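Why does this matter for the project? Reviewers at the last site visit asked to see concrete outputs rather than summary tables. In response, this paragraph embeds two records directly. Each consists of the residue sequence and, immediately after it, the corresponding structure tokens. Nothing has been edited or filtered.
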Amino acid sequence: MERLDKVLSNLGYGTRKELKKICRSGLVEVNGELAKDSGMQVDPENDKIVINGEEIFYRKYIYLMMNKPDGVVSATYDNRDETVIDLLEVEHQVFEPFPVGRLDKDTVGLLLLTNDGELNHRLISPKWKVDKVYFAKIDKKVTEEDVKKFKAGITLDDGYLCKEAKLEILNASDEGSDVMVTIQEGKFHQVKRMFEAVGKTVVYLKRTEFGTLPLDEELEEGEYRELTDEELAILKSF
């Protein structure tokens, strides 16, 4: 059971103060009865709640896929930079979602956002072995020797030994290389630091896949949408 005003506020129908006035005005019904008390207890998943003639459909969790743009930080709040939450419509912000893991400020691509803490934990915890796939442009020629080093486990500048990673060379020359990298961890600047460990620099990085869920290529950078039931089932299968 939850307070009626909390349920309606979470769905973007107003602040608790505003909803108190709305209820007193006789605009809210619960199971066919006028709800004069905005603080009354309701079962949002089973009670029929109508506000101003419109029946509401409550959901506790929200699941979003974003194509994160360059220059935006993966945080819920930042006093200097624009955050991924700032890109959301108010109707989605009211659920107070947070990024699943993070992408660096200058990294683009697939970012998941949710307010489902349990799912978030499963997706970012290394013990569940969820693949994160990245496309990267590298400033130098990537070699088969680098592939072997990634598979064996790269040691970062702070001494941390990364788990086995898959490095696939798409094309390589002395002018630079295009590669795909698959990791199951999410250390700070991990992909960039892994390449630094082999004497190379990442000049562009885009996450293309999380688990087996690919980025919707129809999403422009900065755009997002809710996950489909099928996509959510994929993520919950881990």
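We now turn to the second protein, recorded in exactly the same manner.
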Amino acid sequence: MSEPSLARLNILQEITAPGGDRVEYSAQIDPVFTIGPKVHGGTLQMLSANAALAGFRATAPSDKPASDDLAAMAISTNYLGAPDPAEITLHVWVRKRGRRVSLVDVEIHQNGRNLVHSTVTVGTPDVDNHYSAPTPLSAIPASPTENVIWVEKSPVGEVMHLSAVLDIAIEERSLAFTRGEKADPVFRMWARPKEADPDALFAILCGDLSAPVVMNLNLFGWAPTMQLTTYLRRRPAPGWLRIQASSTEVGHGWFEEDHVVLDSTGKVVVQSRQLAMIPAAG
């Protein structure tokens, strides 16, 4: 059996021929793409974005093929259930085919249930910008320093299994909870695929890569994401991606978690926001 990889995860098998604006695919999710026993939310968004682009191209009129420059610029996902690491079916509908912006719906089904629904905006991402506000990420090096915590060697790695296919290093001072301390709900880290340079789909996955930042408030346990919206601002340059996950409003039932992702040149490649449940143990 071949080793799991991001490239193999994104291989879609067409199970229905495109008919009008609809097509269906299947994909196999390896257990390494899990948080605890369930599939990682960012992985499901990455798969949905890939299926949206594949379906958009497959259903394009023969006289108007889809441009190679297109990407999933915005993905708004509702998690209706938590898929297991196994085969899934992806149902794709092209809702609008526009000159600059198109809209695609993707549902992920498993065992006869619709577990994930995403609306994907397809367009051409930016390359340059007029303005970019500084972030705390800009002040940290473009690649991991000596004083980092590698996820695969940390307690986080016991529940976050993606380090089998990704290199993930967390800024040591971010993890106050590992020292028995409380701190602001902010984590900073670096990530890259093990077998290739980062691409747009990997950048989307990084919009949900952090462990729940409320762990720094000593709130531990499963914090399921209800809704996640991710913006792909531009394609990443080769090298490490820098990621900051943070929250500004932590209630007793819910918290928001924002991700900002910079590439090795310091440009913003992804911004995301999710609404998640406070762990039951908290």
